[in-house]
Amino acid sequence: MDDGLVGRQLGAIREVVDVAGGAGIDVWLRGGWAMDFHLGDVTRPHVDVDWYCWRDDAATLAERLGTLGWRPDPRMPARLQLDLLRDDVELSFAYLGRDADGRVVVGAGPWAGTPLPDGMLTGPPGRIGTLAAPVISVEAQIEFKEMFPVWMPERPRRAKDAADLARLRASARGHPQR
Question: Which of 75, 102, 163, 174 lies deepest, with the highest CB count within 10 Å?
Answer without folding.
Answer: 163
